[in-house]
């Protein structure tokens, strides 16, 4: 927890990945936004982790991918026929003018795009922003919360 000297960490060869230990709000875009904003506050500057002029969203996303691959060292990564595949797609909604880097920037910093679909191990688990087992999961969650709060 807290803000760390990210530029010095990266200069020393450090890499970062993202994740969440929260059960309240879990979001890749939110995690990347928080990383950038924490560095803005600490260093009183924008785009601290990457070269000025490049898309901050793309730089953050690619930095997280690179760090994530490093954390998975020893495991097979990359897309291949028959391989595991975890990925997501974005729905631009009314922001259909957003393309490429602007789409990543819009998703991370303006919530102009939303996660539409998520595939885990090649299986589509989220469709149109909703988990395919949402009803079952919701019932189990509510029952668990009633049990916990009744204690």
Write up this protein:
- This protein is α+β, with helices and mostly antiparallel strands.
- Helices cover 43% and strands 13% of the residues.
- Helix 3 crosses helix 4.
- The mean pLDDT is 88.
Strand content: 5-15%
Mean pLDDT: 88
Largest sheet: 4 strands, antiparallel
Low-confidence stretches: none
Number of strands: 4
Alpha-carbon distance between the two ends: 31 Å
Specify the helix fraction band. 40-55%
Q: Order of strands across the biggest sheet? A: 1-2-3-4
In DSSP terms, counting alpha (H) and pi (I) runs of 4 or more, how many helices?
5
From the alpha carbons, calculate the radius of gyration and give it in angstroms: 18 Å
The SS-based structural class is alpha+beta
Q: What is the succession of H and E elements?
A: HHHEHEEEH
Shape descriptor: globular
Main attributes of the structure:
alpha+beta, four-stranded antiparallel beta sheet, globular
Short characterization:
The chain has about 150 residues and is an alpha+beta fold. About 45% of the residues lie in helices and about 15% in strands. The chain has a 4-stranded antiparallel sheet with strand order 1-2-3-4, with no helix packed on it.
Describe how the helices and strands are arranged:
Layout lengths: L5 H6 L16 H16 L12 H16 L15 E5 L8 H10 L4 E7 L2 E5 L2 E2 L2 H17 L1
Antiparallel strand pairs: 1-2, 2-3, 3-4
Helix pairs in contact: 3-4
């Amino acid at each position: 927890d807290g803000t760390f000297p990210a530029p010095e960490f990266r200069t020393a060869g450090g890499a970062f990945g993202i994740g969440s230990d929260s059960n309240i709000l879990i979001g890749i875009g939110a995690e990347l936004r928080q990383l950038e904003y924490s560095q803005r506050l600490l260093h009183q500057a924008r785009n601290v982790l990457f070269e000025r002029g490049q898309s901050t969203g793309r730089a953050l996303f690619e930095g997280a991918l690179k760090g994530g691959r490093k954390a998975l060292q020893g495991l097979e990564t990359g897309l291949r026929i028959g391989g595991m595949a975890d990925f997501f797609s974005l729905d631009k909604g009314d922001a259909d003018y957003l393309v490429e880097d602007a789409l990543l920037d819009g998703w991370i910093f303006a919530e102009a795009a939303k996660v539409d679909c998520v595939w885990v191990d090649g299986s589509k688990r989220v469709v149109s922003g909703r988990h395919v087992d949402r009803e079952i999961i919701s019932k189990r969650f509510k029952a668990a919360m009633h049990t916990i709060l009744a204690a």
